[in-house]
Amino acid sequence: MLPSGITLYSGELFSQWQGDILIGALVNKEVRRVRLSNDGSEADDVEGLFGELDERIRDVRVGLEGEVYLLTDSAEGRLLRVVPAE
């Protein structure tokens, strides 16, 4: 995995991700959600997210209201705002 953007999730919209690290992956074309062990020494859980976009993820950030922003790295790069499905 070639990491790009990285952020710590501390929002309310995806409460199940609270304290997890979100890492953009250029080559893998996804965001990796990493939950650390209680002492922070190893990854307890790793999940690939947003792979269905099939786009390289250049950066990942958390907005003020807990939404996740993805910046894609393609010919027609996009800024995507991710919120939970209603």
What do the pLDDT scores average to? 91
Radius of gyration: 13 Å
Q: What is the β-strand count? A: 7
The biggest beta sheet is recorded as: 4 strands, antiparallel
Task: Please count the helical segments.
Answer: 0
Helix percent reads under 10%
Low-confidence stretches: none
Globally, the shape reads globular
Kindly estimate the percentage of residues that lie in beta strands according to DSSP.
over 45%
The secondary-structure class comes to mainly beta
Distance between the termini: 32 Å
User: What's the number of structural domains?
Assistant: 1
Describe this structure in words.
The protein has 86 residues and is mainly beta. The protein has one domain. Helix content is 0%, strand content 47%. It has a four-stranded antiparallel beta sheet, with no helix packed on it. A three-stranded antiparallel beta sheet has the order 5-6-7, with no helix packed on it. Strand 3 and strand 4 form a beta hairpin. The chain is globular. This is PQQ-dependent sugar dehydrogenase. Pfam families: GSDH (PF07995).
